[in-house]
Amino acid sequence: MKKTDIETFYSILAANNPKPETELEYGNVYQLLVAVTLSAQATDIGVNKATRALFERVKTPAQMVALGEAGLKQHIKTIGLFNTKAKNVIALSDILVREHQGEVPQDRAALERLPGVGRKTANVVLNTAFGVPTIAVDTHIFRVSNRTGLAPGKTVLEVEKKLEKATPARFRLHAHHWLILHGRYICKARTPKCWRCPVASCCAFKSKTPAPILKTKAS
Question: How many structural domains compose the chain?
Answer without folding.
Answer: 1
